[in-house]
Amino acid sequence: MMIFGLEGTAWNLSAALVDEQGVIQEKSATYSPAKGGIHPREAAQHHAQHMAEVVGEVLAYSRQQGLKIDAIAFSQGPGLGPCLRTVATAARTLSLRLQLPLAGVNHCVSHIEVGKWQSGARDPAVIYVSGANSQVLALRQGRYRIFGETLDISVGNAIDKFARSVGLSHPGGPKVEELALQAKQYIPLPYTVKGMDLSFSGLSTAATQAAKKYDLADVCYSLQETAFAMLVEVTERAMAHAEKKEAMLVGGVGANKRLGEMLTIMCEERGAKFFLPPRKFMGDNGSMIAYTGLLMLKSGMATSLTESKVRPGYRTDDVPVTWA
Ligand code: AMP
Ligand code: MG
Fold first, then answer.
1. Which of 60, 1, 73, 50 is nearest to 25 (CA)?
2. Please, which pLDDT band fits residue 305 given cuts at 50, 70 and 90?
3. Given Cys at both, which of 23, 108, 159, 179 links 220, Cβ 3.0 to 4.6 Å?
């Protein structure tokens, strides 16, 4: 099976061709805000502007190589409404035009599936941390159950917001990671774990306040240490509860080396194995949508046109994992 996948829930418009063996082709166009964070309407306009070029390049490649596409997969949610609608419209058009079945993919599930595919994890507790989401999940009775999640903003958003407040451009995650390497001391910041859930909003604000008094590198370091320790604590408890012997880190924030290091240490101490997919599969990409579409279609889960409405609040645990 050869699937064409289209991602565009937020900052990255990305189309890819994937089969069971691997990624055959991928093209992306990245929206970066001139100032401030991601503006939903501007991001959607960006995707609309680049749609023909991104989709066209991948389709042209398939024609040149004489490849036969079997279905169209697209990210149906969760994500920014205007972006989702732009992507869904393009996917429906392709499906009608090429007479191919559609698969509406849950974006969060696709981060998990591409992670397992590319890292070799089999049944991990998943730490999914991105610009919009922070969840700790594990597969149980046919669904990715959410063991813990943020009660307000995601860890990526918390770091990006802090970064903007101290004059660093979006996305702030990589810049904060870089600065943290020069830190000399830890500054106490609010550590908020409620049961299995997390809160990052107050932490972000406290870091912004601290940056007025303390060295920026020290604050970056302290923000990372605090936020990541919270995530590691919840992950460890989820692993104990769900009896998982593996942990896997996915999502854009997963590119952070310190977070990977802290999870590695926790797993070693429990006799568990830590999995980290290659960096290019961490942030949003078309391949993860195509690959998850492939799994869905192989298990008979196509999406009809009437079911193809966008789902901005699509929950990870809404998806029956029929392929596992
Ligand atoms: P995603 O929504 O999965 O595409 O991920 C985007 C998020 O990943 C943004 O919040 C970025 O700031 C964050 N990010 C990317 N690289 C890093 C990094 N090295 N450390 C921390 N956060 C990062
Ligand atoms: Mg994502």
1. 60
2. very high
3. 179
**Dist. CA 112 → ligand 2 center (Å):** 10
Q: Determine contact, residues 310/76, Cβ cutoff 8 Å.
A: yes
Ligand 1 centroid from CA 31, angstroms: 14
Predicted local distance difference test score (pLDDT) of residue 324: 85
92 CA distance to ligand 1 middle (Å): 30
Work out the pLDDT band at 37, boundaries 50, 70, 90: confident
**How does DSSP classify residue 19?**
E
Ligand 1, pocket residues at CB < 6 Å: 10, 130-132, 156, 159-160, 171-174, 177, 251-253, 255-256, 283-284
Ligand 1, atom nearest to 11 Cα: 4
Could you state, in order of their start, the residue ranges of all structural domains in the chain? Answer: 3-111+281-318, 121-278
pLDDT over 90 (residue 133): yes
Closest C-alpha residue for ligand 1 atom 11: 173
Average pLDDT, the chain: 97
**Is 121-278 in the same CATH topology as 3-111+281-318?**
yes
d(CA 134, ligand 2 centre) in Å: 10
- Testing ligand 1's pocket by substitution, the residue of 155, 253, 279 carrying the most ligand atoms inside 8 A of its CB is 253
Q: Helix and strand tally (H, E) in the chain?
A: 9, 12
Task: For residue 204, give the ligand nearest its CA.
Answer: 1
- CB count within 10 Å of CB 182 equals 12
Q: Which CATH architecture has domain 121-278?
A: 2-Layer Sandwich (3.30)
Taking 3-state DSSP, the helix, strand and coil percentages for the chain, each rounded to the nearest 5, stand at 45, 20, 30
Q: Which CATH class is domain 3-111+281-318?
A: alpha beta
pLDDT (tens digit per residue) in 69-125: 999 999 999 999 999 999 999 999 999 999 999 999 999 999 999 999 999 999 999
Report the distance separating Cα 60 and Cα 74, nearest Å.
19
Could you please report the per-residue DSSP string of 164-213? HHTTPPSP-HHHHHHHHTT----------EETTEE--HHHHHHHHHHTTT
